[in-house]
Design goal:
- By secondary structure, the protein is α/β, with parallel strands linked by helices.
- The strands form two sheets. It has a five-stranded parallel beta sheet with strand order 2-1-3-4-5, sandwiched between helices.
- Helix 1 links the parallel strand 1 and strand 2.
- The longest helix is centred in the last third of the chain and has 16 residues.
- It starts with 9 loop residues before the first strand and ends in a 9-residue tail after the last strand.
- It has a single domain, classed as Rossmann fold.
Length: 158
């Protein structure tokens, strides 16, 4: 007997710049992701502290209530499913990138972002997050990234 399970991959965008968050949202929606938008770090933390949190978070470095670095630190101290964190920054200083990685970010995207770079980084994020978790990344009939459960023997369940 085979089983089918498909769920669009979820991405949190946390950015107080409405234009930037709308552009990110449009790009991710066009790639088939389910997008959640938060306007500040406090809202982002409310989403990310739950067990049913998104697989990827794109966090602006500078936000009201709580900055992206503090959200990273809190996520890394919390329990629950792993969240791949992309830090969104206009800062090009290498020391700042290191500071973000030290806070718990997995990668970064520079502002203004390029849609092809965003797509490449989110695909890499999903592959790393799902690796070893008993799921594989699929594109269900062009419907966008999703997951398929694998059996214990490593065979994909459909």
């Amino acid at each position: 007997m085979t089983f089918s399970y498909y769920r669009p991959m979820r991405v949190l965008i946390a950015d107080d710049d409405r234009l930037s968050s709308r552009m990110l949202e449009a790009s991710l929606n066009a790639s088939g992701y389910e997008v959640i938008v938060a306007g500040d770090g406090g809202q982002a933390w409310q989403v990310l502290k739950n067990d049913d949190r998104p697989q990827i978070a794109i966090l602006d470095w500078m936000m009201p209530v709580m900055d992206g670095l503090e959200v990273c630190r809190r996520v890394r101290r919390s329990t629950g499913p792993y969240v791949y964190i992309l830090l969104l920054t206009g800062n090009t200083d290498p020391d700042s990138v290191v500071t973000g990685m030290d806070a718990g970010a997995d990668d970064y995207i520079r502002k203004p972002f390029h849609p092809a770079e965003l797509k490449a980084r989110t695909i890499e994020a999903l592959q790393r997050t799902l690796e070893g978790a008993g799921v594989e990344l699929i594109d269900e009939n062009g419907g966008g990234p999703g997951v398929r459960l694998k059996s214990a023997k490593g065979k994909g369940r459909k």
